[in-house]
Design goal:
Layout (H helix, E strand, L loop, with lengths): L1 E4 L6 E3 L19 H7 L5 H7 L2 E2 H43 L7 H13 L4 E2 L4 E9 L3 E8 L9 H18 L4 H5 L3 E8 L4 E7 L1 H4 L1
Length: 213
């Protein structure tokens, strides 16, 4: 089988006839249709068109497989990044920091010390896609993680879908993980700030006390 990829929506259209002119998914005209191509290549046949312009069934299968692997990988690294950044980093230092909380004047001081301890191991590659750049203790009882997606550019991402996937994972982690008990008890807002590899802002997820109480 042979396919023409729609440049408008990305759909791979199976080429069953030389009269295929419009995408079967979005109905936009295909740039690489046989009718237009043959006007510039009058000495070539439909079989030549399929060989020279179209992709093959094997190429299509490879594209589908690769796309699936990327989607599966996306869910994996998101889940791992959230688990690692929230639960490992804080878990390493919370015992020491919170153990002396009674001696501290304010919880803001605890947040500052938490950020300082985490930043000692930053920048830190969470996995092959995600880097934890640093943590920041902000005014008004806010603690923020700053991430970079080191292999991705904003233009190549569906930012809203990415955020929609990450957000409930993070919120659930903040709600349930025992390492965050002190943050929940002190009504801390936790921010998760993401940038692409060029440093361009993607989105921020802010988990406020009303979201985890």
């Amino acid at each position: 089988m042979h396919y023409i990829k729609c440049k408008n929506c990305g759909h791979n259209n199976e080429v069953k006839t030389e009269y295929l002119t419009f995408c079967t998914k979005c109905n936009k005209k295909l740039d690489d249709n046989f009718a237009d191509w043959s006007r510039l290549n009058s000495d070539k046949t439909f079989d030549d068109f399929k060989l020279m312009v179209c992709t093959t069934e094997e190429t299509h299968k490879h594209t589908l497989k690769t796309g699936f692997a990327k989607r599966k990988g996306l869910k994996y690294w998101i889940g791992f990044a959230v688990t690692f950044a929230i639960f490992y980093a804080l878990g390493q230092f919370s015992g020491e920091i919170f153990g002396g909380f009674g001696k501290k004047q304010t919880f803001d001081k605890v947040l500052l010390e938490s950020a300082n301890e985490i930043n000692k191991i930053c920048p830190l590659m969470v996995d092959g896609e995600t880097r934890l750049d640093n943590a920041i203790a902000k005014p008004d009882n806010v603690f923020q993680y700053n991430y970079t997606l080191v292999n991705m550019l904003k233009d190549s991402l569906d930012v809203e879908k990415l955020k929609d996937y990450i957000e409930p994972v993070i919120i659930n982690g903040v709600k349930t993980n025992p390492e965050l008990k002190n943050f929940r008890e002190n009504k801390t807002t936790l921010n998760y700030y993401y940038r692409d590899k060029a440093g361009i802002y993607l989105f921020m997820i802010s988990v406020t006390p009303d979201m985890y109480e």
